[in-house]
Amino acid sequence: MKLPASPDRRVFLAGIALATALLAGCKPSGDGSGGAGPIKVGEFASITGSEAAFGNSSHNGTALAIEEINKAGGVLGRPIELITEDNQSKQGESVTIVKKFISRDQVSAVLGEVASGRSLEAAPVCQEAKIPMVSPSSTNPKVTETGDYVFRVCFIDPFQGGLLADFAKRTLKARKVAILSDVSAPYSVGLAEFFEKAFRAGGGEVVIEQRYASKDKDFRAQLTAIKAVSPDAIFVPGYYTEAGLVVTQARQLGITVPIFGGDGWEAPELIQIAGSALENTYYSTHYSPEAADPKVQAFVKAYQAKYGGQTPDAMAALGYDSALVLADAIQRAGSTEPAKVRDALAATKDFPCVTGKTTLDAQRNATKSAVIITVKDGKFKYVETINP
User: Fold this and answer.
1) What pLDDT score does 35 carry?
2) I need a labelling partner for 378 at 20 to 30 A (CA). Which of 17, 78, 124, 195 fits?
3) Could you give the angle at the alpha carbon of 13 between the alpha carbons of 10 and 18, nearest 5°?
4) What is the dihedral of CA 343, 347, 351, 355, to 10 degrees?
5) Whole-model pTM?
6) How far apart are CA 196 and CA 135, in angstroms?
7) Could you tell me the domains of the chain?
8) pLDDT of residue 36
9) What is d(CA 205, CA 160) in angstroms, rounded to the nearest whole number?
C-alpha cells in the first residue's frame, strides 16, 4: 500500500526509517530498545456485542496505522505486533484481557477502549503494572484520573458537554431542553451532567430528565413524559444502539423537535436503525471525512483502499491517531521501557493527527476541536467546527 502523501506523516515516517537505519545491527539493550523482535502492543476493543460498530472502526484505524508504520520500517528498527482481543462489549472482560496482555504477552503498551466504562475497568490494571495505556476515544474525565500511565487522544466530556450546550442555544435556538440519558453508562451519565451544568449556566432550562438502561428497547414511556412538557429540543447522550431507537420512537409519537447527542452516536448503524427519522438530529464528534485537510483526505483514501471503500468514521480516525501517537512516543523515548514511553507520551506536543494536532496536557488529555454532524437524505453531513 502506498503511504498517504501527507507532509507531516512523511516527516514522522522518515524519522522512523532513519532510526531503523541507525539501529540496524545493534544488539538488544536491557530496556528492549534494540532490534531483537517485534514491539508488542495490546489492543482491547468491542469487536462483537452491542458496541461492535465502535470497536471495529477503532480497530480498523489502529490496524491501518500499524501496517503503515511497519511498512515504513517499524519503530526503533523493529516492527510493531498488534495483539487484539475482543471484550464482546461486556462488563468485566476488559480487565481479564489487559491482565493477559501484561502477564502473558508482556506488551510494552495498551491501546483501548472506545467506551469509557470499559476503559475505566482496564485503566487501574495498567496503572498498577505501570504499563502505558492510550484510549482512542473514551471521553469520561475519570479515565485519565486513574493515574499517570493513562492517556487519551480525544477531547473530554466537560468540553463536549459545554460545546453541545452552546450549540443548543446558538444554533438550535433552544431555551428549554429535555435530557434522556443511559443510567448504566458512565459516558452518558457524565456527558449529561456536564451538558446540564453548562446549559443552565448559560441561562437555559432543563425541563425534564428521564433515564433508561443500556440494551433497553422501548423508550415510549420516557418520551411520552418528555412530550408532555414541550421542550425545544431533546438531548440524548447515549450510544448509537439506543439513540437510534429513541429517535425512531420519538418521531412515531409525533415529537418533531431537534434531537441531539454526543460522539456516542457516531456509527453507520445509526442510519440503519433510524433511517429517515434522523432528519433534524445532530451530534458532536471528533472529525469529519469531508474535511479538506490533506491529512484527513490521505487517511480516508488509505482506509477506503484497505477496507473495501468504507468511509472511516471518527472512531476509526481516533484509533489510527492513538497508534501513531504511541509509536511516536516510543520513537522519541528511544526505548520500549514503559516508564520512558510514559514520559514521552506525557511530552507529546502538536503531533499531527487526522483529528487535529494533538498536545497532551498535564492531565494526559488531548485538547482539540470538535465538529457537529447532521443527517440529510440518509447521509451524514458536516455542519460546523467548534474550537476549544
Assistant:
1) 52
2) 195
3) 120
4) 80
5) 0.86
6) 25
7) 7-155+291-368 (3.40.50.2300), 157-285 (3.40.50.2300)
8) 75
9) 18
